[in-house]
Predict the 3D structure of the following.
Amino acid sequence: MRLTLYGDYSLRLLMYLALNYGRVTTIKEVAESYQISKNHLVKIVKDLLKAGYLESVRGRKGGLLLAKEPKEINVGKVLRLIQRNFNFVECFDPNTNQCCIAGACNLNPVLHEALSAYFSVLDKYSLKDISASGELLRSKLGISAQVGD
């Protein structure tokens, strides 16, 4: 099982904003810290804004903020929203399935069970949990410590 870059970058963006909770942050700042494409982040931001995970601040000092507290953002829910396609094998999609052994093979239910276990673990964690090593993450990303940390 592999997380797409879209899913990976989505979680990284949310983690960055969690580390800067309450401070307006720009896409450019995040892209530079992670050394990833600003264009990729723009697409992700649109999805996360639409889903209600982010708020956009307009104007000269504009940027992004988390719309919820980090402890209220569930990792499993974010990935279900962002990743969208968890069709690990052809037979997972009944609309395009051309597998000649579909229905006779036991791989499909085993992989569905594995996917369920995968999300069962992810559903236990919040954005706060995956950003818990705040000082170390801030240091690696070049982020100044927040007031009150």
